[in-house]
Amino acid sequence: MLLLKIDGASNVPAYRQICDRIVALVDEGALRPGDRLPPTRALGASIGLHRSTVVRAYDELRALGYLESRGGSYSTVRRRQRPPSTRRDPTARKDDSLIDWSAVTRPSIRALHTHTAMEPIKSATPGDVIDLDRLSADPTLAPDDDLRRCIKSVLVRIGGAALDYTDAAGWRPLREVIAARMCNHGVAVSSDEILITGGAQQALDLVLRYLTRAGDRVVVEAPTYGMDHALLKLHEVDPIELPLLDDGMDLDRLQRVLQRGRRRPKFVFTMPNFHNPTGITTDQQHRERLMALCEKHRVPLVEDGVEEEMKYFGQAVLPIKSMDSKGIVLYVGTFSKVVFPGQRIGWIAAPSEAIVRMTDIKHASCIAGNTLAQAAAALFCNSGEFESYLRRIHRVYRRRMQALLQGLERHMPDGVTWTRPSGGYTAWVTLKDIEMTESELLERIMREGVKVGPGNRYFAGRPATTHFRLSIACVAEERIEIGCRLLGRALARALE
Amino acid sequence: MLLLKIDGASNVPAYRQICDRIVALVDEGALRPGDRLPPTRALGASIGLHRSTVVRAYDELRALGYLESRGGSYSTVRRRQRPPSTRRDPTARKDDSLIDWSAVTRPSIRALHTHTAMEPIKSATPGDVIDLDRLSADPTLAPDDDLRRCIKSVLVRIGGAALDYTDAAGWRPLREVIAARMCNHGVAVSSDEILITGGAQQALDLVLRYLTRAGDRVVVEAPTYGMDHALLKLHEVDPIELPLLDDGMDLDRLQRVLQRGRRRPKFVFTMPNFHNPTGITTDQQHRERLMALCEKHRVPLVEDGVEEEMKYFGQAVLPIKSMDSKGIVLYVGTFSKVVFPGQRIGWIAAPSEAIVRMTDIKHASCIAGNTLAQAAAALFCNSGEFESYLRRIHRVYRRRMQALLQGLERHMPDGVTWTRPSGGYTAWVTLKDIEMTESELLERIMREGVKVGPGNRYFAGRPATTHFRLSIACVAEERIEIGCRLLGRALARALE
Fold this sequence. Notes:
- The structure is a homodimer.
- By secondary structure, the first copy, chain A, is of the alpha/beta class.
- Chain A has helices at 14-28, 40-47, 51-63, 107-110, 144-157, 172-184, 199-211, 226-235, 251-259, 284-297, 352-366, 371-382, 385-411, 438-447, 477-495, and strands at 67-70, 74-77, 130-132, 194-197, 217-222, 238-245, 248-249, 268-270, 301-304, 329-334, 346-349, 416-418, 426-431, 450-454, 466-471.
- In chain A, helix 2 (40-47) crosses helix 3 (51-63), helix 7 packs across helix 11 (352-366) and helix 13 (385-411) packs parallel to helix 15 (477-495).
């Protein structure tokens, strides 16, 4: 006979006490699979409770898989298939899985992990190495206190709304701030033509989801920003790589590509300002011709302006989007390359019909972005703190870029050429006649204590010439000069 | 002759002053396309500057598209294709665009906007309407001050790192906190088996990107959470809708689907606890059989546990993932249905190999999530504030659910049935023999001052029977009772 003690004075309901006791008996092994439980009426009588209490307990135990009914007349203890364990069995091997999780997906996904085009977010660069590879706003310059004040102020002023959902298209005041900033760059857009995204990367992902499907082709510059190659792989979209000449994408070849009837590219991707990795800025004529070609062939032009704010020398050339009277340009911007990349705020400026579609895609795929981050960014801009920060870092980065260009001038041996950017963070070094592989070269450079960005990261295929990228983003001025000297020594030896 | 005044005392470099002046003359119309500019040497002499300064100015003007060189010997004013305007032309029509942005994408994207399955994030419900539609954690219960303290503390303790990039897989301490929480639910996972996502929606999006491609099929419950239908549309994945019986998904039909050889589903999607929209919780036997079927056919089982924490009555049934010794379950969790949805924090618990693949996809598509939000969430959990918040809202929601169930018992007319959830936020009402359309019915209910969730939102096709969903998420206890009374009146009339 089942022995159960029910504590009538307890806060725990009687039915729950019955449950707990029977679960304990099963777990202890005192009750075993197949054992028959007393009928509800009999058990109720034996412990002084109404039958309905026992019925409720048995129901609960059935739901939990401890009991099963046999022929409706009585309940027996059930064999629970796998008693859950909250401790990991240390002998359990990972590949016990019935499913091969590395093979279950398509090859394009499997290729992502090893794809060299993915830039590391955090380099494990030791402190004594001069890191001319990392490209992200220098965290040592970041106005952390200003943003902290903005966050605090948003939480006080806006309260709970800053922690609740925002619109899929983004926090309205931020859309307005960004529309106004775009106007400063000559781009006349209203806030309805702005979609807030989780950085430029999500922006490009949304553009690809919107305009392409697997097997499609898009035109990119060669070289182009490495992450885009990972993104294209993810979408199974093939890049048509057009060489980047000294003055920008080869437009004669673009013309030929667009004139071909079959497998028309779904869009043309360009980085006209401070191109990553080369640092090239195209001139107004190039921009006009590029746009005229896209207009003529009615091909969307995706303009990546993620370093738009980082102009140091000469006059600014306005974004292509500023001339977009025919509504064919999707412009991608971001704060991440300027400040606070961990806040993940980028945007797309585009015709409102395109914004509506991409907002739907964003809504279906992630509902919305982080409200607090967006509200704080809007306040950061509106309070004027962004402008004063920009002025400050412009001074710093102008000096860094000068230090890089002077250092290269001073230390590069013959046979080495490089670009002379007027803004942004990167310059591009080319070695025409070198007899070693890129990885051998990079290893030699690393042995001198300098880290640079491998050139092949920025091509889908293998580049014909050896290149590497230099980034001034996170290196102090005086260390850039040293870096150039060490680099010069490594290259001189490599070219011997 | 060109008249230029150069201010030698100005901070603006002389070449820039030349540029600015010529740009102004062009913009004013004083210089017109085709006009010839003086030779550099002559202009230099006339304004007392070295020729090289004028050369630099002309170079800049060429880059900006104001000048062009004619035969190399002299420069003329160039016709700029479109002078950028920072003011929108009010007469410009939207459909001036050369590209039809609504037609440029595939039909599956075009269908998103009008798809009724998308739940509105913010209902524009007037204050006097009793909103039994909205499903998100009640913002009036949110521990805003506690989170504010956590954010402040993170910014002070962690500093700039909280605003810099985090790993694509998520802020490590948060992955550890969530692994520990999963252990409390009987799921033995390490932090390497946790991927932080932008809410449950991004988690499901990553699962779909990982396991499916256009044209694939997946098994879902019918009804199932509405947003999933939008997400499936986005991925062009076809749902196999298996009816949800009183005790969960129809497993006999699942067995037949899995036994069919062709067009095997890529995964089975289930919400075993407090199913949205029905509120049904499956029992242990059902879970074991579902898992055994998936194991037998080696089909991944995607378990949506987004309301896992919201158990009010009876004993908790542990997640299916707790029994997953064969590594076939991908578990999706989120904070958004419990607290701070605007912080966008969800997760996937899965075998580490699957986590690696989905992390790669996340990295390629958005680099990483919001660092500050993740660090603050980790602290919020670790400080014990989450637990005390959970205890508080459990008391509130238990009473709200009781009020709903008692209210339905009291006020529903004959011919109306409903589910009796033991947790979560939703109950499901079914009207078998009603002669009007769903939208007519909902309009009648709305006229009584009550908003409910349209049943067809939760099916891919048209449901055979009329249903609607009731959510207690954002309605105070006393208003739930009133809501049930008004609802009863509307239904009694509708069924007359």
